[in-house]
Each structure stands twice: as structure tokens, then as C-alpha cells.
Q: What sequence folds into this?
């Protein structure tokens, strides 16, 4: 049985003059991928060294400059992976590796051992400061927990000095996390971090990193931002620390919390690609980076080819990407519903290549992340005329006039209802051509002849072996006249449209060349019936004649 009385709100500081809601983001934060550590520790089957290497290379290719590679003191595999990166010289000069360790001496010692010969590394030490863990896990007072942090900071510093004796060229950067910061009294978190800084004595030129985790997300993003703003504004020597944020997604708001933390003054964000991580995951760097991108901010990560990096992430985590995952899911740029399709089609027609992106229902240009417009609109039973028109235009170059779109809509709808899912482009085109195109089986036109006499055109045409003749102010009206003479029925052309159609033709020597054909559409009124005819032919007149004949016989 559900019982909300069982739960209570995590206390967060009362800010009387909070600033973060007034701020805007203007640049990307310092990104830190923790896929190889936090992401990895959440997997039922942790990554092998080879899988870690595959992901490492991918992260480098995407532009990450700090990568938490693991917990080298935790297992031989983690240790060996660290050694492999160093010994095989796989760490580019502009990339810094980061490693996690508890505030325990033997683990810190082993961590430095794993890093022998590294050019530069972040030693990330943590201990929890949260109320629940102080009371129930560590059974320690606030002062005792602070002492653990101080002791950890001292060991980190001492072992760095020892390492400098054998490897004077290694540069060490110190990072401390008050684990479960978001479930810690914020003034106490400041006190602990201040004590750690007293040990490390960082300066603005040689900063330490203070990483503030929402280890378990337990407040709303605005209250987490309050915690961060309180922390930053109460830290004495803030200019000597980089403020880093590490959120988890228990309430589904890890990205929002990180984004608001940046408004509150944070410099650096830790997270994973697509949000793999403990429980509901770590903060998804892809989502946050793309959020910035969609507001015109350079994310300083290359996320343009999800088709390359998503499979790597899926392979090492054995987790499939949700089709509606923000920015990169399979269907996130696809519209099935009629009014969305209509709006997208109209906006895309108006979108100028160099103008700011201004397309309804598409927050970014799908091409930026390697998506074709072809996949944007898929026709099913929820689609309207615009969906079919878009597909036939994108895939087959047909610019259907609105009256053809309207005429074809029920046919496409019928097909979608019969098939019960998405109608393939091919099926849609077949339905269209079956409905409208004139084929040689229907009618054969052997030749036609046009003569102009002043304003009047005379048309002579052989249809299925019979000669038709008529006159009018143009080819269409001459043809309508010929029809009237033959059948006694009058026909009016309500509308007419034509356009060139470029198709690729294969020449006998195998080379492909462009071939222009003519597409014609006619909209006719015969007695009380309205019909549509469409045709493709070598020249405009033939297309017009054939379209009209098709319309007449529809
Ligand atoms: C929020 C996070 O993501 S934190 C990172 C979590 N990641 C991992 O734990 C993965 C790697 N960890 C491991 O492989 C193992 O935990 C090891 C090898 C590091 C340590 O293993 P063990 O020594 O067997 O201890 P175990 O994991 O059970 O840790 C519990 C002990 O460490 C202490 N401890 C836990 N965290 C810390 C810390 N940050 N600093 C100091 N002590 C700590 C606990 O109080 C407990 O002590 P006790 O044995 O005296 O009761
Ligand atoms: C070790 C820390 C940074 C962590 O992963 C967490 O608190 O979530
Ligand atoms: Mg974490």
C-alpha cells in the first residue's frame, strides 16, 4: 500500500536572495565523462579491458578532455586498464584521466601505484557526508566524518609527494566529493569542503576540484540549485576551486538539476553518455550538451554522429537506447500525426539554408545529428494529406498540388488502416501511381499534333487507334473540346500544375546521368464529378495530354 506519510522532504537552505533564476547559460561547462567508472559500476557485467578501451577511444573522438577511467584500487582489471592507457601511451596530451578512491590509505596508495608514469591525473577522493549514512552506515558524528575527509585529503597529498620522488613529471590535481551532498546539510558540506581545502591549500592558479553529487536525487532541481548556490556563495576561497556537479536521475531530473546548477555558478559537469549509471542513471551528458546546442551554445563536444557512438555505448553497456531518448532516439525526429506533418512540411519549405532554424516540432535540424529528412515523416493512420505529400516529394520528387493531396489523402488513409502500421514509401508510391498514373495498358497515344492559328490551338491526337480533334485557347482546352466532340460530354479544367521531374538514368556503359521528365496534374469537372489525373512523360504536352486522359477516364 502506498503511504506518503512514510517520506519527508530533504531539507535544503532557505535563500532569501537567490540569483540563479536570473541567469542564462552562455557557454559549455567543463565536461567529465564518468562512463568508465560510475557507468561501469552500475553494470551487471562490468566492462572488459577491451570494452573499456573501445569506449575510451570513442570518448576521446567526441572531444572529452577529462575522463574518469575507473577505480584502480578496486580490482585487477581496473588497475590493468589504467596501466594499459599509460604504458601504451593512449592518453593524448590534452586529455586528463581521473580516478576514484575512498578515503582509505591502502586504496590511495594502490591508486598512485596504478598511475605511475602518467602525465597528469585527477585523484578523486570521497566520503559520504549525508545524514542517513553518518547515522546508519558509518555511525559517526559530524566531526568524525569531517575528520575522515581531512585524513583522506592528507593521504592524497602525501602519496602525491611520494610519487613525485619517482615520477617528478606527473602532475596531480586533487578532487574531493562530499558524497550524497544533496542529502547533507549544506552548511555542513561547506564546512567539510573548507576543511579539505585547508589541507590542500589550492590557489586560483592551482585549483582543487570540489564535486557536489546528488548521489541519490532527492530534491527538485530548483532546490538542488539552491544548495549549489548556497555552497558556492559560502565557500571562503571559491576562486581556488572548480565547482563540479554530479547528479543522478532518481526523480528523472538529473539533467535539469545539472542545468540549473550551472546557472547557480558551477563550472564543471560529470555525467555519462545516454545516462547509464547507478539505478535510474547518471546525468546524461548527451541531453545536456544538446540542450545547450539547441539554444545556440557550442557544446564543445562532437555529438554529430550518433550512428557511430550510440552502438559503442550500447555494446559496452548492453543497454538499448530508448527510441524516444532525447536528441538521439530512433523516432525523435519522426512525426506520425497529421497536423505535425503538415506544419513540418510547410516550415521546411520556408526554411532558408543560412537562416536561423525555424521549424515547428523539430527543435533542431535533424541533419545536424546525421538524420535525413526522409525519416522525419512516416505515414500511418494518424497522418493527413501533408504526410503523404512530404514522402512523395522527398522520395519521388512529386510536388503534389493541394487538390491532389486532398484527393489522395483518403486513399493513403485506407492503405494505412488496412496495413495497420507505418506505410512504406514504396507502398505509398504504388498506391499513388495505381490511382493516378496512366499506363500503356489503359490508353495508348500514338502521336499528337498541335497547330497554332493566332490565339487558337488545334490538336489532333491518336488515342487507342482513333483520331481525336479539337480546338481551344490552349492545349488543355483543345483536348477538352476533342473530348466533347467525341463523347458529347463537356469537361472543365478546374486546376492544372506541372513540374520537371529529375530521375537518375543508367546509361548502357553503367554511368548514371540526370534525366528530366515532365510531371502534369489536372483537376477536372465532368458533369457533377470531380476527378484528378496525373502523368509523367518525356515532354510537358505529352504529360498534360496523358494526365487529362487519365482524369477523363477516372
Ligand atoms: C556513490 C559512488 O558511486 S561511490 C563509488 C562506489 N564504487 C564502488 O564501490 C566500486 C569499487 N569498490 C570496490 O570494489 C570495493 O568497495 C573496494 C575494493 C573499494 C573496497 O572493498 P572492501 O574493503 O571490501 O570494503 P567495502 O566495499 O565493503 O566497503 C565498506 C567499508 O569501507 C568503508 N568506506 C566506504 N566508503 C568509504 C569512503 N569513501 N571512505 C572511507 N571509507 C569508506 C565503509 O565504512 C566500510 O568500512 P567497514 O568495513 O569498516 O565497515
Ligand atoms: C563518488 C561520487 C562522486 C559518486 O559517484 C556519487 O556520489 O554519485
Ligand atoms: Mg555517482
A:
Amino acid at each position: 500500500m502506498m503511504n506518503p506519510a512514510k517520506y519527508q522532504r530533504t531539507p535544503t537552505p532557505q535563500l532569501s536572495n537567490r540569483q540563479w533564476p536570473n541567469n542564462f547559460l552562455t557557454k559549455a561547462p567543463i565536461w567529465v565523462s564518468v562512463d568508465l567508472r560510475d557507468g561501469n559500476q552500475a553494470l551487471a557485467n562490468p566492462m572488459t579491458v577491451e570494452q573499456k578501451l573501445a569506449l575510451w577511444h570513442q570518448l576521446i573522438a567526441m572531444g572529452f578532455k577529462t575522463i574518469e577511467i575507473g577505480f584502480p584500487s578496486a580490482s585487477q582489471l581496473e588497475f590493468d586498464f589504467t596501466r594499459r592507457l599509460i604504458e601504451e601511451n593512449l592518453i593524448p596530451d590534452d586529455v586528463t584521466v581521473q580516478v576514484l578512491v575512498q578515503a582509505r590509505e591502502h586504496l590511495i596508495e594502490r591508486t598512485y601505484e596504478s598511475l605511475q608514469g602518467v602525465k597528469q591525473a585527477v585523484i578523486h577522493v570521497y566520503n559520504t557526508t549525508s545524514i542517513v549514512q553518518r547515522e546508519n552506515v558509518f555511525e559517526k558524528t559530524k566531526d568524525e566524518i569531517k575528520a575522515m575527509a581531512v585524513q583522506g585529503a592528507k593521504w592524497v597529498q602525501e602519496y602525491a609527494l611520494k610519487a613525485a620522488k619517482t615520477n617528478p613529471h606527473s602532475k596531480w590535481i586533487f578532487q574531493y566529493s562530499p558524497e550524497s551532498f544533496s542529502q547533507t546539510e549544506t552548511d555542513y558540506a561547506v564546512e567539510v569542503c573548507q576543511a579539505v581545502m585547508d589541507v590542500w591549500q589550492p590557489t586560483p592558479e592551482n585549483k582543487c576540484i570540489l564535486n557536489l553529487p546528488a548521489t541519490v536525487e532527492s530534491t527538485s532541481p530548483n532546490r538542488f540549485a539552491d544548495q549549489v548556490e548556497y555552497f558556492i556563495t559560502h565557500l571562503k576561497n571559491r576562486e581556488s576551486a572548480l565547482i563540479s556537479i554530479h547528479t543522478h536521475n532518481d526523480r528523472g531530473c538529473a539533467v535539469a538539476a545539472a542545468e540549473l546548477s550551472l546557472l547557480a555558478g558551477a563550472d564543471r559537469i560529470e555525467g555519462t553518455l545516454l545516462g547509464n549509471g547507478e539505478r535510474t542513471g547518471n546525468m546524461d551528458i548527451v541531453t545536456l550538451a544538446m540542450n545547450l546546442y539547441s539554444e545556440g551554445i557550442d557544446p564543445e563536444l562532437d555529438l554529430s554522429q550518433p550512428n557511430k557512438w550510440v552502438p559503442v555505448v550500447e555494446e559496452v553497456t548492453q543497454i538499448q537506447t530508448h527510441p524516444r531518448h532525447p536528441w538521439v532516439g530512433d523516432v525523435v525526429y519522426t512525426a506520425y500525426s497529421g497536423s505535425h506533418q503538415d506544419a513540418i512540411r510547410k516550415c521546411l519549405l520556408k526554411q532558408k539554408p543560412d537562416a536561423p532554424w525555424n521549424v515547428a516540432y523539430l527543435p533542431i535540424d535533424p541533419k545536424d545529428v546525421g538524420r535525413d529528412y526522409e525519416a522525419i515523416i512516416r505515414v500511418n493512420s494518424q497522418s493527413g494529406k501533408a504526410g503523404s505529400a512530404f514522402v512523395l516529394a522527398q522520395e519521388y520528387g512529386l510536388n503534389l498540388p493541394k487538390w491532389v493531396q486532398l484527393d489522395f489523402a483518403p486513399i493513403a488513409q485506407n492503405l494505412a488502416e488496412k496495413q495497420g502500421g507505418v506505410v512504406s514509401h514504396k507502398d505509398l508510391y504504388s498506391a499513388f501511381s495505381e490511382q493516378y498514373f496512366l499506363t500503356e495498358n489503359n490508353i495508348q497515344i500514338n502521336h499528337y499534333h498541335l497547330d497554332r492559328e493566332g490565339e487558337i490551338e488545334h490538336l489532333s491526337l491518336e488515342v487507342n487507334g482513333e483520331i481525336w480533334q479539337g480546338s481551344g485557347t490552349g492545349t488543355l482546352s483543345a483536348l477538352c473540346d476533342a473530348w466533347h466532340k467525341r463523347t458529347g460530354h463537356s469537361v472543365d479544367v478546374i486546376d492544372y500544375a506541372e513540374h520537371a521531374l529529375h530521375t537518375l538514368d543508367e546509361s548502357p556503359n553503367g554511368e548514371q546521368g540526370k534525366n528530366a521528365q515532365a510531371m502534369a496534374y489536372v483537376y477536372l469537372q465532368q458533369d457533377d464529378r470531380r476527378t484528378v489525373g496525373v502523368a509523367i512523360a518525356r515532354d510537358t504536352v505529352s504529360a498534360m495530354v496523358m494526365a487529362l486522359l487519365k482524369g477523363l477516364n477516372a
About this structure: The chain has a mean pLDDT of 94.
